[in-house]
Amino acid sequence: MLHCAIAVAGQPALGCPDRNPAHFVRLQKPWIGCVYELPPLAHERDAWVRHVLSPDRPDLDAYLADSLPASPRAGVPA
Question: For the chain, what is the radius of gyration of the CA atoms?
Fold first, then answer.
């Protein structure tokens, strides 16, 4: 089960009362991220399945060592 609570700051279009980047308010929309934020979420899910749920013995060290490649297109098919 995935639960998501998001706070935003400085973005009036998202319901922020001002442009102050330190004035966080809870996002009231049911969003979990934009297309650029979803690859890290997908990577975390896949890494958890790959290292913890799928093997005969969970390997937390491998899970913690698994990182998303640093790329603006990481996780996006070519």
Answer: 16
pLDDT tens digit string along 4-41?
Answer: 788 899 999 888 999 999 999 998 887 777 777 788 88
Query: Tokens 């934009």 sit at which residue?
Result: 34
What whole-number distance in Å separates Cα of residue 35 and Cα of residue 46?
A: 17
- Which residues, listed in sequence order, are joined to residue 25 by a DSSP beta bridge? 8
Counting Cα atoms < 13 Å in the Cβ hemisphere of 28 gives 7
Contacts of 21 (CB under 8 A, 6+ apart): 9, 10
SS3 25: strand
Which two tokens mark 31?
Answer: 């969003």
The model's pTM: 0.56
14 neighbors 30 (Cβ within 8 angstroms): no
> Cα separation of 60 and 42, whole Å?
18
